[in-house]
Amino acid sequence: MTVRRPAALLIAAAAVGVIAIAAVIASSFLSEQTVAPAQAADAQPDVVARGKYLAEAADCAACHSAPGGAPFAGGLPMQSGFGMIYATNITPDPDDGIGRWSAEDFWHALHDGVRRDGRQLYPAMPYTSYRGITRADADALYTYVMQLRPMKVANRRTELNFPFNIRLGMLGWNLLFLHDSLPAVSIGNSPAWRRGRYLVDVLGHCGECHTPRGMLGQMELSRTFAGSALSRVAAPDITPAALTSRGWTVAGLRAFLGRGLAPQGSAFGDMHPVVVLSTGSLTEDDLNAAVTYLLGDRPPAIVPVSTNNPANIGAAANGAGRITYLALCAGCHGLDGNGVPNTVVAMRSNSTLRLVDPRNLLVTMLDGIVPENFPYRESMQKMPGFADKLSDNDAATLANYLRVTWGGQNDDVTPAMVRALR
Amino acid sequence: MSLPTRPLTLTINGRRHGPIDVPEGMMMIDVLHEMLDLTGSRLGCGQGICHACVVIWDRDDQTSEEVPTCITGADFFNGKRIRTIEGAAQTNDKGEVIALSAVQQAFLDRFSFQCGYCTPGFVNAATVLLERLKRAPVPRAELEATITAALENHICRCTGYVRYYQAVRDVILATPGLTRENA
Predict the structure, then answer these.
(1) Please, which residues 51-90 of chain B have a Cβ atom closer than 8 Å to chain A?
(2) A328 contacts B73? CB cut-off 8 A
(3) CATH 3.10.20.30, domain B5-87, yes or no
(4) In-domain check, residue A13
(5) Which of A256, A258, A252, A251 is nearest to A281 (CA)?
(6) How high is the pLDDT of residue A303?
(7) Which of A395, B135, B153, B157 is deepest in the core (most CB within 10 A)?
(8) CA end-to-end span of chain B, whole Å?
(9) Local structure of B178: helix, strand or coil
């Protein structure tokens, strides 16, 4: 060991030297790049309009705008498992935004995950999905973004932990996890299905939340759309079988994506801004296409709520969970679970009650849902949170009552599950 | 036709009621109005938003909080102690009002309300706030923000809130021990 140690030190010193030289070369290279001239795209109105539509379909604003901040001026913090990443300013300000980027630079960012200065982006920017964007669409997006008002909003530095703060490491990551296309989630080949695949997988980048992630933050493509809990409200399984098992019809999905409200529930949590900023702007044809892809050219049959466990239902109907429902829920959701039109979602046909994982139901019971506006001038009032009124046991029995009565699930929610989510 | 009922026992304004048979799924506002002749709580939105219908729930840990009765079922209140607007003023043996609460008097003095529909809710909210400050005074500098936070769920369509908020501030500042000088 004593013999080998100096050798190791020598190698380490050499490595440091090489890195230092590379850094000097890189920095001169980089500083050269930053003085590139401000770019101007030829802002033809029809291209701008198409770019705007694509930017909505790709939901750029959701991340590239901070709450209360200027659209596309960046700043939204995203907590990853590796540290905090801030979305950047993509307005055409030459210093703070992407005003010096060419259409080529823009394309490389979307397609390869590379910034204009040649450094790697982190896949919080979903180039893993955007890689499928056509060059023509990328150019239209570029044209749209470049005619936005430039905003002088400085970017915040990412705060990633070692070794993930070394952007070069993404080269290896990309070799492993950046694919030209993502696996199809349904079976089909119609023009609508193919258009839907582009809208859902590429522009909509649905898999970035709905596909579970592996140890290195990559989408586990073998489980595409199988659901993932990136934030407090989990993104549920949206494979065709899972959607139909929770009662999602073609009409229901169209209403949900287009309006945010459907008999199966309202868009809440992180999905609410997706509808407001993105899917709610899709044309009728594109909505149809997206739904065609989600369910396939031949959608599976809708699964009715299972009633094959009458013993459970009988117990639920007389149990403590029902009394809690009468005390705290029935005032709005109704004794019969039908809700109030345009105001309160129904429990009877609610998709969240049919999820095998009770997480989203429990989180909603504890936290409530903030009041939100929806497309077509709809709005939903606040649902109060009941964390202070429900003991762990109350919440578990209530969840079991709801799941058994209207969700076709077993009464397997335990107080410990509730406690874990407080 | 007869509705299934559930028994309800609770204490309202210090008086024990029940057990009374309450139709299953009945909201507390209807129990107060239709079964107990306590008609002072107001049904407004019926959706738990306007807070005209709130009553004070006195928890066993000596804290109190507002609960909207339009969306809270009678079952929630079983075995609990609550106060309604009828309990705010002092009354004599015949049930006649002999003295308003400080909050009620301040609302009158300040012309805080016009139609009065939201007033029972505001009285209860202000009462809960005063009692909380008695237990845990806030720095004087934070008083306005504290009042806003305590009352802002309550909707008023007549006077624009300012007179309600000023009246509550008057009462708090005139009552020793509810604020502290320094943070």
Answers:
(1) 70-76
(2) yes
(3) yes
(4) no
(5) A258
(6) 85
(7) A395
(8) 62
(9) coil
For chain A, what is the domain count?
3
Q: For the beta carbon of residue A263, count every other beta carbon within 10 angstroms.
A: 18
Would you say A238 and A294 are in contact if contact means Cβ atoms under 8 Å apart? yes
Domain of residue A157: give its range: 36-177
pLDDT reported for residue A197: 98
Residues A217 and A129 in one domain: no
At A2-42, the pLDDT tens digits run: 334 444 444 444 444 444 444 444 444 454 455 788 888 78
CB B10 within 8 A of CB B79: yes
CATH code for residues B90-180: 1.10.150.120
Residue of A nearest to B69 (CA): A331
Handedness of CA B166, B172, B175, B176 (dihedral sign): negative
Does the residue A19 lie in any domain?
no
% of chain A with per-residue pLDDT over 70: 89
Same-domain check for residues A248 and A137: no
Positions in chain B short of pLDDT 70: 1, 183
Does residue A14 lie in a domain region?
Answer: no
B73·A331 Cβ contact <8 A: yes
- Closest CB to A326: pick one of B24, B47, B49: B24
The SS3 assignment for A245 reads helix
Task: Please give the share of chain A, as a percent, with pLDDT higher than 90.
Answer: 78
| Mutation for testing the B interface, residue in A318, A322, A328 having most B CBs under 10 Å | A328
pLDDT of residue A305: 84
Q: How far is B117 from chain A (nearest CA, A)?
A: 21
pTM above 0.95, yes or no: no
B90-180 shares the fold of B5-87: no
